[in-house]
Each structure stands twice: as structure tokens, then as C-alpha cells.
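Re: duplicated header lines in exported C-alpha cells

Our pipeline writes sequence and C-alpha cells for each protein into one text file. With two proteins the header for the second block appears twice in some exports. Here is an export where it did not happen, for reference. First protein block:
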Amino acid sequence: QVQLVESGGGLVQAGGSLRLSCAASGRTISAYTMGWFRQAPGKEREFVAGIRGSDSSTVYADSVKGRFAISRVYGKNTVYLQMNSLKPEDTAVYYCAAKFLLDRVESESQYDYWGQGTRVTVSS
């Protein structure tokens, strides 16, 4: 079992930055594919960014390319999502998820473990 706990959300003005953290426990996640997803009010959850367990390659949704960066710190068993140039449309609850050696990082249904989410609000 893998437990995931997100943190780092909050209220920020448009153009600002936040760094979300996803701390894992229970198992070492070095070989796990980690994904960040978000769900805005009244909308379905969507993929944001992912980092593969096989080679640490990264994938981003078009809406966040060039603004967000996902990374992992092996010694801390933690994955981060650095979010820059935030926009009001980035407002959502952000979730991290984990799946051992998943290749299709965008595939929400394939993830085995999920955190409880952290809320990000971007004011205009």
C-alpha cells in the first residue's frame, strides 16, 4: 500500500507561483509513475502532469506546458508540482496519484493510489 498526502495549496494572485508536494509513505515510490490531476468546480477531473517510474520522463497537459514542472526527489519519497504564471482557470483541487511503472501517465483510471487533494485558488 502507498499512502499519498498532498500539501502546498492555497490562495494566490494570477501570475503567482505555488509548489505542491506529494509525500508518499508505505513504499518507496522511485519506480512508480506519479501523476498530478485536478478537478475544478463543476468539471471532471483532468490530467495535469506525470513523471514515469521507468525513466523519469515527464508529460504535461497542453494547458500547463511551459508553466508547470513535475519533479521527484528520491531520498524524500516526494513528488513536486511547481506551478508558475498561475491563471484563474488553474483553480481546482489538485490530486497526486501513483501506479507502479505505468507508461500512459495520462490514464487516470490506471492509477492505484490517490491522495486526498489540496485546493488551489487563483484570484484575478
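Second protein block, exported in the same file:
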Amino acid sequence: VQLQASGGGLVQAGGSLRLSCAASGRTFSSYAMGWFRQAPGLEREFVAAITWDGRNTYYTDFVKGRFTISRDNAKKTAYLQMNSLKPEDTAVYYCAAKTSDSEWRIPNNYAYWGQGTQVTVSS
């Protein structure tokens, strides 16, 4: 599967953005999807994930209550709705796909990655 992330941009603190991750290929619904982010000089970190059927979602503590992950298997697209954005949310955001039941938070468990989209939150 090939992934294309989009929707990043510059937003003021307190604002919102919705990221999209469009997939190519016929088996999008076979993959669990995750969003990660990476700020300059820091390691890539887990943000959120969703099971293949959308029934279960997982979030890291610093985005709970602010970010929502979702997916539309008919459109082969995953989303990350980001509300109440903070300057510390500034990073390149990546979407990723995995087929295994491995730990959600570990980047190496994801086999496929999108190219990243820049999110910048000004104070």
C-alpha cells in the first residue's frame, strides 16, 4: 500500500487542522493505521492509531481529548482531526500502516509510511 499524507499547514494556537492519509491499492481495509510525528532534533513519536475496522482507537496522553483519529475504508483514507492545537504540536506528521497485532506505539512495527506533512502552530 502507498500512503499520501496531506492537510498540514500553519495555524494559530487554539486552532484546528484535519490531516488526511490517502492510500492506494486494494487492501486498505486490511491495515491498522497510525499517525506519528517528529519535531526537529527529536525521535518520531506515536500520536494515534485505529484498527482496520475503526472500532478501536488509541492515543498518546498528550493528545487525548484534542485529537481524533478516524478512517473511511470506502475512500481508502484515514484522518487525524486536531483541535486546540498548541505550539508544542509543531512537527512533521506521518501516517503509517501495519497488518500485525504488534505494539501500536513503536514505529518499526509499521511497514508502510506516507511522506509526512508539516504542521506548524504559532503562539
